[in-house]
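thread from #wetlab-drylab

HS: before we spend reagent money on co-crystallization trials with nicotinamide-adenine-dinucleotide, can we at least see a predicted complex? here's what I'd submit
DV: go for it
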Amino acid sequence: MKVLVTGGAGYIGTHTCVTLLGQGYEVVIVDNLSNSKPAAVERVRELSGKDVAFYQEDVGDEQALRDIFQKEKPQAVIHFAGYKAVGESVEQPLKYYENNVGITVALLKVMGQCGVKNIVFSSSATVYGDVENPPLREDAKLPHHANCPYGTTKLINEQMITDCAHADPAFNAVLLRYFNPVGAHESGRIGEDPAGTPNNLAPYIVQTVVGKRDKLHVFGNDYPTPDGTCIRDYIHVVDLAEGHAAALKLFEKGGCGLRVYNLGTGRGHSVMEVLKAFCEAAGQEIPYVIDGRRDGDLPESYADVSKAKRELGWEAKKTLQDMCVDSLRWQRQNPDGYGD
Ligand code: NAD
Ligand code: WQD
């Protein structure tokens, strides 16, 4: 099967491409490199030993996208492309609605015009908002808006794709709600390469280990959790990548209609537990300071993963220790990420 991967040069996209290529899928990457580097695509080629078609295009450019679909004739799409910085989305909401919602409209239109009926969409645990208590199940009632514009774009995308599935019985869509992806490919050749100061916990910690940051700022230790710091469901990015391969299998089996799955481990870890695991993996103390709470953070979030296990035959295999060891290897081997 040939799969067109939007955002395939990004963090999760590169890992997914390597997994898919390893399983015999053909991959076509469309990425405008707004948050990634050409070297990432080169590393995918290097790791897979395969020739991967790459188009540096904006997914919102319908004509360019149509040309790619007509030339490459993919059977399925995995749609990773989008912006993902929560804080930036609060400051510049239209940037997020334009890119994250607008390009999905363009993509769905072009898929329709070209007769491509299978899509896997990168959603997020952020769609659950703060209404339900964990473990979060896919059938939870979703809020009308998330706690930031970024999250709301995920809700809107889910709704648009759901409406397309309702409008066309032959349309197949798998919405994957990722929890907290961390880690890197065990080769140390691909990994997360955030621009500027990292917003997320794991990249901030690894940059502290290599001396790019002075110390970790722990955002609050007065939450109603055992050690007072927030609990999240961290999932290794390679496990996540395999979840996408499992989703594609649904298309190969025939019409699956609309499906929604959590991709997490089902286990929560606190900020202090993550920090301790990184200290062990790094073999050193990692300086930190306790700061105030960050706006919008929930005390606790972790997935109910039973549906993905039952229906996709997929479950996360890697441990928090694996995530730490692999993130550190990537950071140490590539202190400046993919470079300029
Ligand atoms: P990333 O920024 O590393 O990758 C996204 C890629 O999309 C980048 O390479 C970027 O250049 C590309 N892109 C953005 N806008 C584009 C456009 N208009 N046209 C073409 N390419 C475009 O992010 P990631 O962490 O790999 O996330 C991938 C997807 O997963 C995103 O949709 C994100 O919202 C979602 N997600 C990520 C996380 C996470 O914590 N990383 C969690 C849940 C969901
Ligand atoms: C984890 C924990 C922080 C940084 C975000 C998005 C979510 C999804 C995944 C895309 C929290 C604490 C963090 C730091 C800290 N992305 N922390 N110091 O907020 O669970 O999820 O990424 O869909 O939508 O919101 O992940 O890694 O930012 O934070 O103490 O420097 O680490 O307060 O408790 P989060 P995170």
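DV: The first helix runs from residue 11 to 22.
HS: ok that's useful, forwarding to the group
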